[in-house]
C-alpha cells in the first residue's frame, strides 16, 4: 500500500492531533458523555468537514482512500469523532453526486467549512435492516411537502443544521423502494422543538458517547419542493441514493474498525511489555504472543481490505461486495481485538483507568451500524452466488 506524499502529510497531521488532543481526553469525555466541542472545532479548522467536497465548492477535494485513512486515524483516538463527521460526509457525497447544481451551490460551501453539519436518517423505530419498511411520509402540500413520522438513531440528530432524510412519497409503489424520496431537511441546530419537529433528549447508549443519537419526531413539518434531492428527477429515487451512500458508510465503518482495533492493539502490546507475572514480562509468555500475532495480522488484513474497497468505490465501479467484505472483516476483527486486549490487561482492562474499557463498549456499534454483519453476510453471499452461478 503506497501512500502519496500528500496522504502521508495529512495522516501525520491527524495522528499528531489524536496523540496530543484526543487520546489523553477521550475517555474523560466518554465517561461524562460530553460533546467534544474543542476537538470538533479542530476538525473544522483542519477542513475535515469538507474533506471530499470538490475544491470548486470550498472543500479539500480529496479522494475516498485518503478519507478512509483519516477516519482510521481519528478512530484510533475515538470513534465518536468519526461519527460526527460521517453522516455529514455521506450527505455531502449524496448532494455532490445526486443533487442539482443549485443544491450543490446552496449547501456544499457551508458544509465544507462545517458551518452547516448534516445528519443522515433512514432508520425508524420498527425498521432498521428492512429499510423498505419505513413509514415516514412526505405528502404533497401546497408548494412543498408535509413530513410526518418518526425516525430513530439519528447520529448528530440535535446539533446538525440539516438532515438527509428518507421518506415515502408514493405509498402504493410496488416494490416499495420505488416510492421513496431523499429530502434535504433544514432545521435549527441545538433546538429540541421547532414547528413540526421534536428532537427528544438523546438516547442513552453503551458506548459511542459524546456524539448524540436521537429520535426525530416529524408532525406536519413543511419543506419546500426544492428540498427533494435531485429536484423533480429525484422524486421516488431516494432509496437508490441512500443505498449508494451506505456503501460509502461501510467503507467508513471498516476504517473506524481498523482505527479502533489499532488502538486496542497498541494498548495491549504496550501493557504486555510492562506487566510481569511469574518472573517475566507477560509479552514473554507464548499465550500472550499468540494473541498479539493474531491481532496484528488481522488488523493489517482489515486495513488492506478497507483501502481496496475505498479505491474500488472511488473508481466508480460497483463496490458493494468489496465494501461489504471489508466492513464485515474489519468490524469482527475490532470486536475480537478489544476482547483480546481486555484479556491481556487482566483485571485492569476492566478499570475505567485504562482505554480498553472504552474500546470494549465502542466496538459493538461497528458490528451493527451501516447494516448489521448478518445482513452484510447475506449481501456478500448473494453477490458471490451471482458471480459463481452455474
Ligand atoms: C449508535 C447508533 C447510531 C446509529 N446511527 C444511525 C444514523 O445516523 N442513521 C440511521 O439511519 N441509522 C442509524 N443507526 C441505525 C442502525 O443502522 C440500525 O440499528 C441497524 O441497521 C440495525 O437495524 P435494527 O436496529 O432495526 O435491527 P433489526 O433490523 O431489527 O435487526 C435485529 C437482528 O435481526 C437480524 N436480521 C434482520 N433481518 C435479517 C435477515 N433478513 N436475515 C438474518 N438476520 C436478520 C439483524 O442482523 C439483527 O441481528 C444507528 C444505530 C446505532 C445503535
Keywords:
390 residues, alpha+beta, Butyryl-Coa Dehydrogenase, subunit A, domain 1, Butyryl-CoA Dehydrogenase, subunit A, domain 2, Butyryl-CoA Dehydrogenase, subunit A, domain 3, 3 domains, 5-stranded antiparallel beta sheet, 3-stranded mixed beta sheet, 10 strands, binds flavin-adenine dinucleotide, Butyryl-CoA dehydrogenase
Give the arrangement of secondary structure elements:
Layout: H1 5-22, H2 26-32, H3 37-45, H4 64-77, H5 79-98, H6 101-113, E1 118-121, E2 137-141, E3 144-155, E4 162-168, E5 180-186, E6 193-194, E7 197-198, E8 213-224, H7 238-272, E9 276-277, E10 280-281, H8 286-314, H9 320-345, H10 355-368, H11 373-387
Parallel strand pairs: 1-4
Antiparallel strand pairs: 2-3, 3-8, 4-5, 6-7, 7-8, 9-10
Helix pairs in contact: 1-4, 4-5, 4-7, 4-8, 5-6, 5-7, 7-8, 7-9, 7-10, 8-9, 9-10, 9-11
Bound molecules: flavin-adenine dinucleotide (FAD).
Explained architecture:
By secondary structure, the chain is an alpha+beta fold. The chain folds into three domains: 5-117, Acyl-CoA dehydrogenase/oxidase, N-terminal domain (Butyryl-Coa Dehydrogenase, subunit A, domain 1, Orthogonal Bundle), CATH 1.10.540.10; 119-236, Butyryl-CoA Dehydrogenase, subunit A, domain 2; 240-385, Butyryl-CoA Dehydrogenase, subunit A, domain 3. The protein is built from eleven helices and ten strands. The strands form three sheets. A five-stranded antiparallel beta sheet has the order 2-3-8-7-6, with helices on one face. Helix 5 packs antiparallel against helix 7, helix 7 packs antiparallel against helix 8 and helix 7 packs parallel to helix 9 (320-345). The two termini are 35 Å apart. The mean pLDDT is 96. Flavin-adenine dinucleotide is lined by residues 87, 120-123, 128-130, 153-155, 205, 208, 213, 365, 368-369, 371-372, 374-375, 378. Residues 119-219 form the Acyl-CoA oxidase/dehydrogenase middle domain. This is Butyryl-CoA dehydrogenase. Its cofactor is FAD. It comes from Rhodococcus wratislaviensis (Tsukamurella wratislaviensis). GO terms for molecular function: acyl-CoA dehydrogenase activity; flavin adenine dinucleotide binding.
Amino acid at each position: 500500500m503506497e501512500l502519496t506524499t500528500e496522504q502521508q502529510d495529512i495522516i501525520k497531521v491527524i495522528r499528531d492531533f489524536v496523540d496530543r488532543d484526543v487520546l489523553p481526553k477521550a475517555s474523560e469525555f466518554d465517561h461524562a458523555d460530553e460533546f467534544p466541542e474543542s476537538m470538533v472545532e479542530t476538525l473544522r479548522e483542519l477542513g475535515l468537514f469538507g474533506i471530499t467536497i470538490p475544491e470548486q465548492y470550498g472543500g479539500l477535494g480529496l479522494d475516498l482512500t485518503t478519507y478512509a485513512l483519516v477516519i482510521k486515524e481519528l478512530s484510533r483516538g475515538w470513534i465518536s469523532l468519526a461519527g460526527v463527521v460521517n453522516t455529514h460526509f455521506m450527505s455531502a457525497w449524496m448532494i455532490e453526486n445526486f443533487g442539482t447544481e443549485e443544491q450543490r451551490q446552496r449547501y456544499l460551501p457551508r458544509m465544507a467549512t462545517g458551518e452547516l453539519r448534516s445528519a443522515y436518517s433512514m432508520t425508524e423505530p420498527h425498521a432498521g435492516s428492512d429499510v423498505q419498511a419505513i413509514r415516514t411520509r412526505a405528502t404533497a402540500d401546497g408548494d412543498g411537502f408535509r413530513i410526518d413520522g418518526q425516525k430513530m438513531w439519528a447520529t448528530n440528530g440535535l446539533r446538525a443544521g440539516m438532515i438527509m432524510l428518507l421518506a415515502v412519497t408514493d405509498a402504493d409503489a410496488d416494490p416499495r423502494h420505488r416510492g421513496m424520496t431523499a429530502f434535504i431537511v433544514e432545521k435549527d441546530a441545538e433546538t429540541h422543538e421547532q414547528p413540526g419537529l421534536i428532537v427528544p433528549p438523546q438516547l442513552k447508549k453503551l458506548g459511542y458517547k459524546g456524539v448524540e443519537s436521537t429520535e426525530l419526531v416529524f408532525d406536519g413539518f413543511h419543506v419546500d419542493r426544492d428540498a427533494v434531492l435531485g429536484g423533480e428527477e429525484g422524486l421516488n429515487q431516494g432509496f437508490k441514493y441512500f443505498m449508494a451512500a451506505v456503501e460509502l458508510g461501510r467503507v467508513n465503518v471498516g476504517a473506524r474498525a481498523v482505527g479502533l482495533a489499532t488502538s486496542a492493539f497498541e494498548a495491549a502490546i504496550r501493557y504486555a511489555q510492562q506487566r510481569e507475572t511469574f518472573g517475566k514480562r507477560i509479552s514473554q509468555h507464548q499465550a500472550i504472543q499468540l494473541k498479539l500475532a493474531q491481532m496484528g495480522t488481522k488488523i493489517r488484513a482489515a486495513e488492506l481490505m478497507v483501502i481496496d474497497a475505498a479505491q474500488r468505490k472511488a473508481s466508480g465501479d460497483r463496490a458493494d461486495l468489496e465494501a461489504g467484505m471489508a466492513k464485515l472483516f474489519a468490524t469482527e476483527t475490532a470486536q475480537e481485538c478489544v476482547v483480546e486486549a481486555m484479556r491481556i490487561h487482566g483485571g485492569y482492562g476492566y478499570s475505567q483507568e485504562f482505554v480498553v474499557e472504552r474500546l470494549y463498549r465502542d466496538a459493538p456499534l461497528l458490528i451493527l451500524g451501516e447494516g448489521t454483519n448478518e445482513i452484510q453476510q447475506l449481501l456478500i453471499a448473494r453477490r458471490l452466488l451471482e458471480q459463481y452461478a452455474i
